[in-house]
Design goal:
Structural class: mainly beta
Radius of gyration: 18 Å
CATH class: Mainly Beta
Distance between the termini: 31 Å
Number of strands: 9
CATH topology: Porin
Strand content: over 45%
Shape: globular
Helix content: 10-25%
Protein backbone atom coordinates (compact mmCIF):
# COMPACT_ATOMS: atom_id res chain seq x y z
CA UNK A 1 0.00 0.00 0.00
CA UNK A 2 2.84 2.40 0.84
CA UNK A 3 4.47 1.74 -2.53
CA UNK A 4 1.16 2.43 -4.32
CA UNK A 5 0.76 5.76 -2.49
CA UNK A 6 4.36 6.75 -3.31
CA UNK A 7 3.89 5.91 -7.00
CA UNK A 8 0.62 7.82 -7.16
CA UNK A 9 2.21 10.87 -5.49
CA UNK A 10 5.25 10.75 -7.80
CA UNK A 11 3.07 10.40 -10.90
CA UNK A 12 0.81 13.24 -9.76
CA UNK A 13 3.76 15.54 -9.10
CA UNK A 14 5.31 14.75 -12.48
CA UNK A 15 2.09 15.45 -14.41
CA UNK A 16 1.49 18.64 -12.43
CA UNK A 17 4.99 19.91 -13.23
CA UNK A 18 4.51 19.17 -16.93
CA UNK A 19 1.19 21.04 -16.89
CA UNK A 20 2.73 24.01 -15.06
CA UNK A 21 5.45 24.22 -17.69
CA UNK A 22 2.89 24.18 -20.53
CA UNK A 23 0.70 27.32 -20.41
CA UNK A 24 -1.19 26.21 -23.54
CA UNK A 25 -2.65 23.36 -21.48
CA UNK A 26 -4.79 25.91 -19.63
CA UNK A 27 -6.74 26.60 -22.85
CA UNK A 28 -6.87 23.00 -24.06
CA UNK A 29 -10.32 21.43 -24.71
CA UNK A 30 -9.04 18.25 -23.01
CA UNK A 31 -8.56 17.68 -19.30
CA UNK A 32 -7.21 14.74 -17.30
CA UNK A 33 -8.30 13.87 -13.76
CA UNK A 34 -6.56 11.32 -11.56
CA UNK A 35 -6.48 10.63 -7.88
CA UNK A 36 -7.23 8.55 -4.82
CA UNK A 37 -10.64 6.87 -4.71
CA UNK A 38 -12.54 5.61 -1.67
CA UNK A 39 -15.45 3.31 -2.58
CA UNK A 40 -18.22 2.28 -0.18
CA UNK A 41 -20.82 -0.41 -0.93
CA UNK A 42 -24.19 -0.71 0.77
CA UNK A 43 -26.82 -3.30 0.07
CA UNK A 44 -27.89 -6.88 0.65
CA UNK A 45 -25.25 -8.72 2.60
CA UNK A 46 -23.99 -5.69 4.53
CA UNK A 47 -21.62 -2.82 3.90
CA UNK A 48 -18.12 -2.99 2.43
CA UNK A 49 -15.49 -0.26 2.33
CA UNK A 50 -12.75 -0.31 -0.31
CA UNK A 51 -10.04 1.93 1.18
CA UNK A 52 -7.41 1.46 -1.56
CA UNK A 53 -8.23 2.80 -5.01
CA UNK A 54 -7.65 5.23 -7.83
CA UNK A 55 -9.60 6.90 -10.61
CA UNK A 56 -8.45 8.23 -13.99
CA UNK A 57 -10.62 10.09 -16.47
CA UNK A 58 -10.30 12.13 -19.66
CA UNK A 59 -12.84 14.75 -20.73
CA UNK A 60 -13.04 16.47 -24.13
CA UNK A 61 -15.04 19.69 -24.55
CA UNK A 62 -17.70 19.62 -27.27
CA UNK A 63 -19.01 23.07 -26.29
CA UNK A 64 -18.30 25.67 -23.58
CA UNK A 65 -20.21 23.69 -20.96
CA UNK A 66 -20.52 20.09 -22.25
CA UNK A 67 -17.75 17.50 -22.21
CA UNK A 68 -17.61 13.87 -23.25
CA UNK A 69 -15.89 11.90 -20.49
CA UNK A 70 -14.38 8.43 -20.23
CA UNK A 71 -13.10 6.96 -16.99
CA UNK A 72 -11.62 3.92 -15.34
CA UNK A 73 -11.31 3.09 -11.66
CA UNK A 74 -9.97 0.37 -9.38
CA UNK A 75 -10.66 -0.28 -5.67
CA UNK A 76 -9.61 -3.01 -3.27
CA UNK A 77 -10.50 -4.23 0.21
CA UNK A 78 -8.16 -6.75 1.83
CA UNK A 79 -9.56 -6.59 5.35
CA UNK A 80 -11.87 -9.62 5.25
CA UNK A 81 -11.17 -12.90 6.96
CA UNK A 82 -13.21 -15.95 5.94
CA UNK A 83 -13.70 -17.52 9.37
CA UNK A 84 -15.32 -20.63 7.90
CA UNK A 85 -12.23 -21.57 5.86
CA UNK A 86 -9.69 -19.52 7.85
CA UNK A 87 -8.49 -17.63 4.74
CA UNK A 88 -7.90 -14.01 3.88
CA UNK A 89 -10.33 -12.59 1.32
CA UNK A 90 -9.61 -9.74 -1.09
CA UNK A 91 -12.43 -7.91 -2.86
CA UNK A 92 -11.66 -5.83 -5.96
CA UNK A 93 -14.05 -3.53 -7.83
CA UNK A 94 -13.07 -2.22 -11.26
CA UNK A 95 -15.17 0.03 -13.48
CA UNK A 96 -15.02 1.50 -16.98
CA UNK A 97 -17.52 3.98 -18.33
CA UNK A 98 -18.31 6.94 -20.48
CA UNK A 99 -20.83 9.74 -20.48
CA UNK A 100 -21.44 13.46 -20.38
CA UNK A 101 -20.21 16.14 -18.03
CA UNK A 102 -21.65 19.63 -17.60
CA UNK A 103 -18.86 21.90 -16.38
CA UNK A 104 -19.10 25.48 -15.19
CA UNK A 105 -16.82 27.83 -17.08
CA UNK A 106 -15.99 30.37 -14.38
CA UNK A 107 -12.90 31.94 -12.90
CA UNK A 108 -11.81 30.44 -9.61
CA UNK A 109 -13.51 27.34 -8.27
CA UNK A 110 -15.12 25.29 -11.04
CA UNK A 111 -17.80 22.66 -10.61
CA UNK A 112 -19.19 19.85 -12.73
CA UNK A 113 -22.10 17.43 -12.87
CA UNK A 114 -21.76 14.19 -14.78
CA UNK A 115 -23.58 11.01 -15.71
CA UNK A 116 -21.51 7.92 -16.51
CA UNK A 117 -22.77 4.58 -17.83
CA UNK A 118 -20.55 1.53 -18.10
CA UNK A 119 -19.36 -1.75 -16.66
CA UNK A 120 -18.63 -2.56 -13.02
CA UNK A 121 -16.58 -5.71 -12.38
CA UNK A 122 -16.32 -7.44 -9.00
CA UNK A 123 -13.68 -10.03 -8.24
CA UNK A 124 -13.12 -12.14 -5.16
CA UNK A 125 -9.85 -13.75 -4.16
CA UNK A 126 -9.62 -16.24 -1.31
CA UNK A 127 -5.99 -17.19 -1.57
CA UNK A 128 -7.15 -20.78 -2.26
CA UNK A 129 -6.25 -20.63 -5.95
CA UNK A 130 -7.82 -19.62 -9.25
CA UNK A 131 -10.01 -22.71 -9.63
CA UNK A 132 -11.90 -21.98 -6.41
CA UNK A 133 -11.91 -18.19 -6.92
CA UNK A 134 -13.35 -18.57 -10.43
CA UNK A 135 -16.01 -21.00 -9.16
CA UNK A 136 -17.08 -18.53 -6.49
CA UNK A 137 -16.79 -15.38 -8.60
CA UNK A 138 -17.02 -16.30 -12.26
CA UNK A 139 -17.03 -13.27 -14.54
CA UNK A 140 -19.06 -10.62 -12.78
CA UNK A 141 -19.39 -7.74 -15.28
CA UNK A 142 -22.56 -5.76 -14.61
CA UNK A 143 -24.11 -2.56 -15.96
CA UNK A 144 -23.64 0.56 -13.83
CA UNK A 145 -25.13 4.03 -13.88
CA UNK A 146 -23.23 6.72 -11.99
CA UNK A 147 -24.27 10.35 -11.48
CA UNK A 148 -21.75 12.59 -9.73
CA UNK A 149 -20.68 16.08 -8.71
CA UNK A 150 -17.22 17.57 -8.39
CA UNK A 151 -15.34 20.79 -7.71
CA UNK A 152 -11.89 21.92 -8.83
CA UNK A 153 -9.85 24.53 -6.98
CA UNK A 154 -7.18 26.00 -9.27
CA UNK A 155 -3.59 26.09 -8.03
CA UNK A 156 -2.03 27.10 -11.38
CA UNK A 157 -3.40 28.03 -14.84
CA UNK A 158 -3.59 24.38 -15.93
CA UNK A 159 -3.69 22.50 -12.60
CA UNK A 160 -6.37 22.17 -9.94
CA UNK A 161 -7.22 20.15 -6.87
CA UNK A 162 -10.23 17.90 -7.53
CA UNK A 163 -12.87 16.75 -5.04
CA UNK A 164 -15.69 14.56 -6.33
CA UNK A 165 -18.58 12.47 -4.97
CA UNK A 166 -20.59 9.93 -6.99
CA UNK A 167 -23.47 7.53 -6.50
CA UNK A 168 -23.05 4.27 -8.43
CA UNK A 169 -25.96 1.90 -9.02
CA UNK A 170 -24.88 -1.55 -10.19
CA UNK A 171 -27.56 -3.79 -11.69
CA UNK A 172 -26.98 -7.42 -10.75
CA UNK A 173 -29.19 -10.35 -11.75
CA UNK A 174 -32.67 -10.42 -10.26
CA UNK A 175 -33.40 -7.79 -7.62
CA UNK A 176 -29.86 -7.67 -6.25
CA UNK A 177 -28.99 -4.09 -7.19
CA UNK A 178 -26.16 -2.62 -5.18
CA UNK A 179 -25.48 0.93 -4.16
CA UNK A 180 -21.95 2.30 -4.14
CA UNK A 181 -20.76 5.71 -2.99
CA UNK A 182 -17.46 6.99 -4.32
CA UNK A 183 -15.27 9.84 -3.11
CA UNK A 184 -12.26 11.12 -5.08
CA UNK A 185 -9.44 13.47 -4.07
CA UNK A 186 -7.05 14.22 -6.88
CA UNK A 187 -5.57 16.52 -9.49
CA UNK A 188 -7.03 17.96 -12.69
CA UNK A 189 -4.71 18.91 -15.52
CA UNK A 190 -6.36 21.20 -18.07
CA UNK A 191 -9.39 23.42 -17.71
Amino acid sequence: MKQFVRQLALGSATLALVALATPAFAESPVNFDFGYQYLMHTGAGGNTNYPAGFNIDVAVAVSDAIRVVGEGSWSRDSSFRDVLNNNDVTLTATSYGGGLRWASHTEGIASHLQLIAGIHHDSYSTGLGNAIDNTINGGNNKFMLQPGFGIVIPIAPAVGILGQADYRRVFYDGNAEKNFYRFIAGIRIGR
